[in-house]
TrEMBL record:
GO molecular function: alcohol dehydrogenase (NADP+) activity; zinc ion binding
The protein's name: Uncharacterized zinc-type alcohol dehydrogenase-like protein
SUPFAM superfamilies per record: GroES-like, NAD(P)-binding Rossmann-fold domains
Keyword tags: Metal-binding, Oxidoreductase, Zinc
Species whose genome carries this gene: Chryseobacterium limigenitum
Gene3D superfamilies xref list: Medium-chain alcohol dehydrogenases, catalytic domain, NAD(P)-binding Rossmann-like Domain
């Protein structure tokens, strides 16, 4: 298959800084579009992948799954886009299209495994997929989103992962006017969860370890902030929430949050992957019909629904723009929870 070369930023091992390298992109096939990447958000999953926190990273790793750009080529069978259109690419660049999940627009749960935008199995070129820390990407048009024209494009990029990852559980657990929602952790996902829950009409509380984020949280739309290390504040919200979106990336005690759920409430883990410590206490779950659940990103149709909602309600991410060359420093700051609230790479810098 014919290819062309573009510049990208890649990690070559678990411990290596990301640095510039050339990668190959396929020439557009009939159902593909070629996208000139304008902006790419920096998700904590990029860092987990570059550093192999979850195991299974294939190197060189080119992260980035919050991509906004302009279409520069369309394949002969593509009718959804034309050259010059804005386009978004999130975490999924391909899925089987025929399993039970795909038939229900749940590509994120594709029973044959969706193809991740990075570190996925590249069906076209072999090897693994390379993400958005690059000049261009070629993607199957059915997995490309339309981007509302009225929004700030750099600030739209994080919607493609942080936005949909929090939107999908909010919708699945029927959040709307009158719902009481809490969000754990004010980072990329957390700040989008606040904005989207608020946009859906919920009363929103932030749980944070960081007292210095209280004013920001209120400006983002949180009605209340609870400092999770303060027992008195935690006691004051016992039995309150219908839905909690927990975005914390590392192992942490979820038991104190379960007690803040209302009867039949659900705590949805979207951040941490792995075994819980200390052990999850089932007593409040059984005696209060409470659930602890998980959720991964969202489907393509649902991502489009979220982008359209954001277009109508003028919702975008709060961003700090960086150059591609600043990515290693950005990762260090992300590890210190020092991001307000999403880094976005200006791809002109590459
Ligand atoms: P982020 O910007 O780094 O935000 C995480 C926030 O969690 C921090 O700002 C901090 O908030 C809190 N936090 C960090 N370390 C903590 C710790 N040890 N204990 C308690 N709280 C801690 O990260 P993100 O990009 O939002 O991603 C969050 C997680 O979601 C990552 O693990 C990422 O891989 C995962 N993710 C999952 C999906 C999915 O589909 N399920 C999609 C995207 C990302 P405070 O300062 O307010 O406490
Ligand atoms: Zn992500």
């Amino acid at each position: 298959m014919s290819t062309f070369t573009v510049k990208a930023f890649a990690a070559e091992s678990t411990t290596a800084d990301l640095k510039e390298m050339n990668i190959e992109r396929r020439d557009t096939t009939p159902n593909d579009v070629e996208i000139d990447i304008l902006y790419c958000g920096v998700c904590h999953s990029d860092l987990h992948t570059a550093r192999n926190d979850w195991g299974g990273t294939m190197y060189p790793a080119v992260p980035g799954h919050e991509i906004v750009g302009r279409i520069t080529k369309v394949g002969s069978d593509v009718s959804k886009f034309k050259v010059g259109d804005l386009a978004g690419v999130g975490c999924i660049v391909d899925s089987c299209g025929h399993c039970d999940s795909c038939k229900q627009d749940l590509e994120q749960y594709c029973l044959n495994g969706f193809t991740g935008t990075y570190n996925g199995k590249d069906k076209h070129l072999g090897g693994h997929t390379f993400g958005g820390y690059s000049q261009k990407v070629v993607v199957d048009a059915d997995h490309v989103l339309k981007v509302p024209e009225n929004l700030d494009l750099a600030a739209v990029a994080p919607l493609l992962c942080a936005g949909i990852t929090t939107w999908s559980p909010l919708k699945h657990w029927n959040v709307g006017p009158g719902s009481k929602v809490a969000v754990v952790g004010l980072g990329g996902l957390g700040h989008m969860a606040i904005k989207l829950a608020k946009g859906l009409g919920a009363e929103v509380t932030l749980f944070s370890r960081t007292p210095g984020k209280t004013d920001d949280a209120k400006q983002l739309g949180a009605d209340h902030v609870v400092i999770s290390t303060d027992d008195t504040q935690m006691d004051s919200v016992k039995g309150k929430f219908d839905v909690i979106i927990d975005t914390v990336p590392y192992v942490h005690d979820v038991n104190p949050y379960v007690t803040t759920l209302n009867i039949s409430g659900t705590l949805v883990l979207v951040g941490y992957l792995g075994g819980l410590e200390p052990i999850l206490n089932t007593v409040p779950m059984i005696l209060g019909r409470k659930s602890v659940a998980g959720s991964v990103i969202g489907g393509i149709a649902e991502t489009q629904e979220m982008l359209d909602f954001c277009g109508e309600h003028n919702i975008v991410s709060e961003i700090e723009m960086i150059n591609m060359q600043d990515i290693n420093e950005a990762y260090e700051r992300m590890l210190k929870s020092d991001v307000r609230y999403r880094f976005v790479i200006d791809m002109k810098s590459l």
